[in-house]
Write the structure tokens for this entry.
Amino acid sequence: MIPALAISALLHVVLVIVLLWGADFSSDSTPTPKAGRAIDATVIDPAVVNAQAKKIREQRNQAKREEAERLKRLEQQAKRLEQQREQEEQRLREVKRQKLEAERQAREEQKRIAEQQAKAEEQARIAKQKAERAERERQRKLEEKRKAELAAEKAEKARQEKLATQRKAEEEAKKAEAERQRKLAERKKAEEEARKAEQARQEAERKAQEAKRRQQEQEAALNDLFSGLESEASQRQSARGQFIQDEVARYGAIFTQMIQQRLIVDDGLSGQECVVNMRLSPTGLLLNVEEKAGNTRLCRATKTAVASVSQFPMPEDGDIIAKLRDIELTVRPN
């Protein structure tokens, strides 16, 4: 708006200057010498004066026409300038309008962009909230899944531990039952061995008593026949020999009983027998055992049983010990 007003004021100043300059020129166009010529016309021909006056009028008319044309041109120029000014003002108003419109559109665009941005931010916020809720839900489900898996693992572990405890209890029960059966078998075997040992002891005592009785009878007989020294000595020797023989038989039965207590065989060897020869030290320590006759399997088991005994009881009588150091025994499964 300010440049248009400045241009309009400048055009008016120029127009005033041109008009003033034209007025001065018109006043100056009336020559002062004409007065002199008028003075001189008093002495010249009036026709000349008229012609001169006509010429002057024509010149003034010409000057007026020229001035009128000049003014017309100036007016036209002023009009053009005014039109240009108006056009410039119109252009400036259009520019301003366009600027205002552009500013309005820019504001509207900014407002639209701001609204879109706010909408986008709101959508982003909502999307973020949804994402956060979804993430929380996912985390919650993951946590529930993890807890469920942990619970399942604990349950499975508890089940496995229960099964292991149950298996262990079953195994311990089986072991306990096996141990009970083993102890029962050992007790039965021990009772059987004790019974047999008692039988063997009773049998050995019976034989010892029988031998003692026979010895007493022999000694009585010897006493009755004491009158004959040679006969008595012979009888004493015979009784001694019988005693030694009986003791060897008794100890042989004890050795056989001890071997049979250590004998491990199956029912398939029932009715079989094995004859072995044992060599012992004076204290009863086993020096050697040899198979003499009988079932091969039973003899292997018998030698094993003899080796497991390893130490046999020995009497104090040297003659009996001498007989027992190299003894032959017959072993039969009970």
Notes: The two ends are 146 Å apart (CA to CA).
